[in-house]
Amino acid sequence: MKVVGLKTLDKFKRKHGDCRQQIDEWIKDVKNSEWKSFNDIKKIYPQASILNDNTVIFNIKGNKYRLVTVVVIVADRVFIEWIGTHEEYNKKTF
Predict the structure, then answer these.
(1) What local confidence, expressed as pLDDT, does residue 64 receive?
(2) Helix H or strand E segment including 40
(3) Which of 3, 35, 52, 82 has the fewest Cβ atoms surrounding its Cβ within 10 A?
(4) Is residue 34 pLDDT above 70, yes or no?
């Protein structure tokens, strides 16, 4: 899979250094993945939330941070939509 929006993650890692390793591991995992269905995502990330509109929400560093993505399986793309703290996520409307 190709990850689109890595600059957003880089900026976030600079501000929140405690999650750098987890984000780097997530990026590596996704780039090395060949997801054919959303079930493939759940096999690797059972805590991920998959919504009807191809939105997939990943928990980073336990559940301290939330990473909101749009996964387009047929295009082999994962688009970074938003990343923030769990508290910020609870206030956000998507």
Answers:
(1) 95
(2) helix 38-44
(3) 52
(4) yes
pLDDT above 80 for 94? no
Coil/strand/helix, residue 42: helix
61: buried, middle or exposed (CB in 10 Å: 19+, 13-18, 0-12)? Answer: middle
Q: In what order do the strands lie in the sheet with 2-4?
A: 2-4, 77-85, 65-72, 55-60, 49-50
The residues with which 49 forms a beta bridge, in sequence order, are 57
Check residue 92 and give its pLDDT: 82
Q: Where are the domains of the chain?
A: 2-91
Please state whether beta strands 65-72 and 2-4 pair in parallel, antiparallel, or not at all (unpaired). unpaired
* Residues 2-91, CATH architecture: 2-Layer Sandwich (3.30)
**Average confidence (pLDDT) over 62-84:** 97
